[in-house]
Amino acid sequence: MHKKSFNIDHGFGQDRMLPAEGKTKIVIVITMIAMLGEIVAGIAFGSMALLADGIHMAAHALAMSISFLAYRYIRKHAFNPKFSFGTGKINALAGYTGALLLVVFALAMAYESVDRLIHPQDISFNAAILVACLGLGVNLVCAFIMGHDHGHKHAHKHDHEHEHAHKHEHDSNFKAIYLHIITDALTSLLAIAALVAGKYFSAAFLDPAMGILGAALILWWARSLIQECTATLLDHQSQAVSDKIRSALAPYEHEICDLHTWSIGHQIYAGELTILVDEHTNPDSIKTSLADIEELVHLTVEIHCKHCKEEVHASSKQ
Questions:
Q1: 124 and 260 inside one domain
Q2: Is residue 5 part of a domain?
Q3: Is the pTM above the cut of 0.85?
Q4: What is the DSSP string of 220-283?
Q5: Do 133 and 103 reside in the same domain of the chain?
Q6: 233, 252, 281: which is the final residue of a domain?
Q7: Dihedral pair phi/psi, residue 225, rounded to 5°
Q8: Which of 35, 94, 98, 142 could bridge 173 with an S-S bond, Cβ 3.0-4.6 Å?
Q9: Boundaries of domain holding 277
């Protein structure tokens, strides 16, 4: 029986600073400046709309700060031996946390909207429209910063150094940040539409109604992100990577007895493989045949020869 490990470096490139980390920092600063401006203006001018939106921005700034700290932690502890397969899963954990915060925000929005439908309140349309427009502007700027230059390079070792670009594919942590920005922008956009209709067509009920619609959309997006993060955190089998391994080994006609692959970070996977081979199979040939699966950064292979398998079966019958 032979065991061959494809990688002894358990950092897997997680020590490199991703563009998303720097972008997140900029977005947090912009959000906090806008937040402070709205809170100060709300207190100074007695505007509850400004004050409420400022507090709303503070909540999103907190959520994005958690994501930013996650990026830093991933880099700083990439080679910490306490993590068996590196720190990549912290991305999924931060994304999961961000998605849960989105659920909390959506439920709070839905509750407030229902309450306002039952107990209508007077709305200062001009001030509310101004606040919604300012919020939308800030969120569009932040969305542009986060979405600019979608392609980024992420390198990891796989017996040799190579780099490849993941275009339009982002980690769960990034998706959580982006969803916070987009959902905030959506909320502002729906609010503007509802407030304008309320002002000019006396349809004040549209404001809370749009709040309920926005909350439902946020819950739907959060649900999708939670499912994605859960698959990583609970080590769901990666069928795509497993199929690549089977395809790469197909020409050798080895019998695959056991195969497990799972995500250990964004677009990187680990696995364990047990195969039955002919007596004179060179383990290095197996390693070479799987080397082109770039996203497979750590694989342990257990090899049994057919003759040994027959002996095992014979002894098990006794």
A1: no
A2: no
A3: no
A4: HHHHHHHHHHHHHHTT---HHHHHHHHHHHGGGT-EEEEEEEEEEETTEEEEEEEEEE-TT--H
A5: yes
A6: 233
A7: -70, -40
A8: 94
A9: 239-317
Indicate left, alpha or beta for 195 from its phi (over 0: left) and psi (-120 to 50: alpha): alpha
Q: What is the pLDDT of residues 121-173, one digit of tens each?
A: 787 888 888 888 988 999 999 999 998 654 444 444 444 434 443 444 678 99
Q: Is residue 129 located within the same domain as residue 277?
A: no
Residue showing tokens 């959309």? 217
* pLDDT tens figures, 48-57: 666 777 788 8
Q: Is residue 4 part of a domain?
A: no
Asked if residue 261 and residue 116 are part of one domain, the reply reads: no
Total domains in the fold of the chain = 2
d(CA 209, CA 211): 5
The answer to whether residue 67 sits within a structural domain is yes
**Are the beta carbons of 262 and 245 closer than 8 angstroms?**
no
Token look-up 């309450």 returns: 115
Task: Output the six-digit token pair for 140.
Answer: 């569009």
Q: How far apart are CA 234 and CA 272, in angstroms?
A: 16
**Beta strands in 82-229, from DSSP E residues, in sequence order:** 152-157, 161-166
Q: Which amino acid belongs to residue 160?
A: H
For the chain, how far is it from start to end, CA to CA, in angstroms? 22
